[in-house]
Amino acid sequence: MRVGILGAGQLARMIALAGTPLGLEFIFLDPSADACANKLGEPLIGDYNDPKLLAQLAERADVVTYEFENVPAEVAEFLASHTQVHPAPKALAIAQDRLLEKTFFHDIDIPTPAYAAVDSLESLEQAMTTLCYPAILKSRTQGYDGKGQSLLKSADDLKSAWELLQGVPAVVEAFVPFNREVSIIAVRSVSGEIVFYPLSENLHRGGILRVSECRADDPMQQQAESYVSRLLEELDYVGVLALELFEMDGHLVANEFAPRVHNSGHWTIEGAETSQFENHLRAILDLPLGSTAPVGNAAMVNFIGGLPKTEELLAIPHAHLHLYDKAPRKGRKVAHATVRAESREQLSELVKKLAALADQVDDS
Amino acid sequence: MRVGILGAGQLARMIALAGTPLGLEFIFLDPSADACANKLGEPLIGDYNDPKLLAQLAERADVVTYEFENVPAEVAEFLASHTQVHPAPKALAIAQDRLLEKTFFHDIDIPTPAYAAVDSLESLEQAMTTLCYPAILKSRTQGYDGKGQSLLKSADDLKSAWELLQGVPAVVEAFVPFNREVSIIAVRSVSGEIVFYPLSENLHRGGILRVSECRADDPMQQQAESYVSRLLEELDYVGVLALELFEMDGHLVANEFAPRVHNSGHWTIEGAETSQFENHLRAILDLPLGSTAPVGNAAMVNFIGGLPKTEELLAIPHAHLHLYDKAPRKGRKVAHATVRAESREQLSELVKKLAALADQVDDS
C-alpha cells in the first residue's frame, strides 16, 4: 500500500516514520529536493500544481493526503477525481479561508469570536463600529504562525494595518481575553469511527506554538469533543483534524481548525497509546483506530530557529528528541522534544528545562 | 552524523527508525538489494567481506555497528582499524563461537550448563561419559534459531548427531531442566555509563522466539544485572548486549549472549521509556543513555512465516504492528506486535489474542 503526501516537511516525515512499521510506502510531492521527508519515500520534486507530477502522484498512490491546508482548490479537485483523497477538498477549502471557516463554525453552532469580513479600508472602519478594540485583522488566506496578522488597538491603527495587507481580502475579529489556549486532536476513519485525544494546552509566543501539554481529564474535554464531532460529521471528514480553541471562564470559543496532523499533537508520539500520525494513516486507510489513551503525563516543546546540542537535550531525563532534518533559520521549526513524567509536578520541571534549552537557541 | 550498519535486516531497520528522529543518517552493507532496511538509508549492496564496499563503509560512516554476530573476524578487524566500530571485534569473536563463549562465561564466573568441546565422534563419546542425558550437540559457529543443534537422548543418538554436523567443530552441553527462559538487555556507552532493562521472559517453540514479556520487579533482576555487568565490563563493551539465561529454582544459568539489539527486547519500542534501538545508538555515539523504565506492562509476539491481516491485528486494543517488509517464507520472522496493558491480567489476555493470530499464519 502506497500513501501519497502533498508536502514533504516534518509532518510528512513523522507520518512516514509512523507508517513504515505498518508496512506502508510513501510518495511525496514537494517543490524542494531537500524536503525533510524525502528520504523516507519516493520524492516527486516540483510545484504542487504541476499537472504531470500530480498525475504521477494520483496514479502511483493508493490514497493521497497532505500535510498543510493551503493546497490550491484545483489541485485537490484534480486528485480527488483521480484517486482517493483524505480529507476531502471541502475541508481544505474551508480551512484555508478564515472567512469561510468562521462562517462554517457559525453555521454549525460552534462559538467564535465576533468577526466581520473586510475587503476595503471602508469595510474595516465599518466593522469596527460594532466590534470593540483590541481586535485583530487577518488575511483570509495564507496566514500561519501569526503571519499576515495585525493587532488593532484603536482607530489609529486601521489605515496602516489595512495597507500592510496590500489589498488582500481579510477578516477582522474581536480579541478574546482568553484564560488559556487549548486544542483537541480528533480522528475519523473512512468507516466513520471517531476517537479524540485528551486536550492539549498550548502556549504561543510571537504567534508560534512553543509548548503543548496533554491535559487528561480536563473539565473542558467534553465541550471540545462535542464541537469537534460536529466538524467531523458535517464535513464527512476522514483523517486527523485539530481544532484550536480559546477558553474563557469555562466556555470554549473556536479559533481555527487544521485539516491535518498538528503541532499541538506531537506529544502523542510518546504520550499517547497511538500517535496522531499513526491514527491519521489508520483513518485514511480505513483500519481500526488506535487507542488515544494518554501514556503518563506528556508535553512537547518546540525548537524554533536553532537546535540544542543533542547531548544536552538527551541528558534531560525522559526527553525524546525529534529532529526534522531542516537547516536552522530564523523563526523556523526545526525540532521538538516530547517528555513523559509520572506526575504533573515532575512534568512541569522537565518542561521548564526543555523550554530553557529552546530559549537559548531561539532567535525569534 | 552517519551510522554504518553491517546488515540491513529488521534489526537495522528498527535502528534506523529509532535514529532518524535523532537526526542520524544510515548506510547499510548487505548482500541483498531487497534488504528491508535499505529504504531508510544508503544501501551498499554486496558481500560482507567485499574490500571495496568495506572501505566505502569505513570512510563514509562516522561509526559502524552491526545487526548480527557472525561478522567474519577479518571484516571486524578491518573496520576497527579504519573507523570506530561498536561493539568491538572481541565481543563478536566470542559470541560467534559457542565454545569461546562458554569458556568466557566460565572465566568470569557466570554459571553455564556443563559442557565439553567436541571435534570428533570419539570426543563426543568421551564427553558423554561425564555429562548426563539428555544433552544437546551444537555447532560451535553459525547456529541461530535452533539451527545446527541436535538433542541427544541416549548413546544411540551420538553417531547420527555427529554425522549431521558434517565434521564441523561443536560443543555438547547438558540439557537444563529450566523453569523458564529469561533475557536481560543491557546497554553500555562509550563513556562507560550502563543501564539495564527489566528482564524479558521468553517463550521459544521449535528453537524460535515466539513471545517475550517484560517482567518489571522480577526477583531474578539483580542476579541477571550482576552477570551482564560482568560481561559488559570484561569486554569493555559498547552498545546493547542481550544475555539469555535459564532459570532453575531461583538460580540463573547463562545460555548465550548476543552482541547486538535482540528480538527479546523488541517490546522496548513501546514498552520502555527509551527503546533498545535508540539506546544502542546513544551508546555507540556516546550520548547520555535514555531511561529504561517500563511503560505499562508490555509484551511482544513474533509473526513467523506469515502475516496476519493488518485490520485484524490493529483491531486488538493496544496492539502495535511492526512489519519488517520481508516476503513471508517458512520459518522467517516477518513482523512482531507489541502490546501494553494496565495490568498483568489484561496483558495476558491481549498476548493470547496476538499469539492466536500468530499461530494462524505460522507454518513452522
TrEMBL record, chains A, B:
ATP binds at residues 98, 138, 143-149, 173-176, 181, 204, 255-256. GO terms for biological process: 'de novo' IMP biosynthetic process. Gene3D superfamilies: 3.40.50.20, ATP-grasp fold, A domain, ATP-grasp fold, B domain. Its EC number is 6.3.4.18. GO terms for molecular function: 5-(carboxyamino)imidazole ribonucleotide synthase activity; ATP binding; metal ion binding; phosphoribosylaminoimidazole carboxylase activity. It catalyses: 5-amino-1-(5-phospho-beta-D-ribosyl)imidazole + hydrogencarbonate + ATP = 5-carboxyamino-1-(5-phospho-D-ribosyl)imidazole + ADP + phosphate + 2 H(+). Pathway: Purine metabolism; IMP biosynthesis via de novo pathway; 5-amino-1-(5-phospho-D-ribosyl)imidazole-4-carboxylate from 5-amino-1-(5-phospho-D-ribosyl)imidazole (N5-CAIR route): step 1/2. Keywords: ATP-binding, Ligase, Nucleotide-binding, Purine biosynthesis. GO terms for cellular component: cytosol. It holds the Pfam family ATP-grasp. Residues 102-285 form the ATP-grasp domain. It comes from the Bacteria. Belongs to the PurK/PurT family. Homodimer. Catalyzes the ATP-dependent conversion of 5-aminoimidazole ribonucleotide (AIR) and HCO(3)(-) to N5-carboxyaminoimidazole ribonucleotide (N5-CAIR). Catalyzes the ATP-dependent conversion of 5-aminoimidazole ribonucleotide (AIR) and HCO(3)- to N5-carboxyaminoimidazole ribonucleotide (N5-CAIR). This is N5-carboxyaminoimidazole ribonucleotide synthase. The gene is purK.
